[in-house]
């Protein structure tokens, strides 16, 4: 005789997916194995966990985005962050200042290289800072200091 199946509440499962819980966390919540979650998804939805999770997590993303936008009405930092994420806004003055400092240092290093072997650690540090500001573009960013982002939706 087979062991009785553990009950997995579909509503709770979908809420956990919306909260971005991992398959392991969901399995822990229901006190079952990850394999049991996978088999249950195939029985219930006729798809594996990964496919169901990618669909059901979107409800949580919508709620999170709504909460962020509501917070942005009261919190300037959140408004600025959302502007950078979704409106391709940036702080060009900071980018330009770093770009100018980097060019000055490169110019000095190029002049000094002719006379002696120069340690490039300072240049590497400034390059790393510039990559962080420009988001890792190898082309140095656009002329106004903002990188062009691809629409990921």
Keywords:
mainly alpha; 7 helices
Describe the SSE topology:
Elements: H1 10-18, H2 23-30, H3 34-45, H4 49-72, H5 76-86, H6 92-113, H7 121-134
Descriptive overview:
This protein is an all-alpha fold and 153 residues long. Among the domains are: 10-72; 92-134. It has 7 helices and no strands. The protein has helices at 10-18, 23-30, 34-45, 49-72, 76-86, 92-113, 121-134. The two termini are 50 Å apart.
- Poorly predicted ranges: 137-153
Whole-number average pLDDT?
Answer: 78
Q: Count every helix, treating DSSP H or I runs of 4 or more residues as helices.
A: 7
Shape: elongated
Please report which band the strand proportion falls in: under 5%, 5-15%, 15-25%, 25-35%, 35-45% or over 45%. under 5%
Class from helix and strand fractions: mainly alpha
Radius of gyration: 25 Å
Q: Which range best describes the helical content: under 10%, 10-25%, 25-40%, 40-55%, 55-70% or over 70%?
A: 55-70%
Q: What's the story with the biggest beta sheet?
A: none
Q: What's the N-to-C terminus distance?
A: 50 Å
Q: How many extended strands?
A: 0
Tell me the series of helices and strands, N- to C-terminal.
HHHHHHH
Give the structure's gist in a few sentences.
It is built from 7 helices and no strands.
């Amino acid at each position: 005789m087979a062991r009785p199946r553990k009950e997995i509440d579909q509503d709770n499962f979908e809420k956990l997916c919306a909260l971005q819980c991992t398959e392991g966390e969901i399995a822990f919540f229901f006190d079952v194995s990850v394999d049991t979650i996978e088999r249950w998804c195939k029985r219930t939805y006729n798809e594996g966990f990964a496919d169901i999770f990618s669909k059901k997590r979107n409800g949580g993303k919508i709620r999170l985005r709504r909460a962020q936008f509501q917070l942005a009405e009261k919190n300037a930092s959140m408004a600025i962050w959302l502007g950078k994420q979704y409106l391709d806004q940036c702080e060009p003055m900071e980018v330009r200042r770093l770009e100018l400092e980097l060019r000055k240092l490169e110019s000095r290093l190029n002049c000094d290289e002719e006379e002696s072997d120069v340690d490039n650690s300072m240049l590497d540090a400034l390059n790393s800072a510039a990559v962080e500001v420009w988001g890792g573009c190898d082309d140095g960013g656009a002329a106004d200091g903002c990188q062009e982002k691809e629409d990921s939706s």
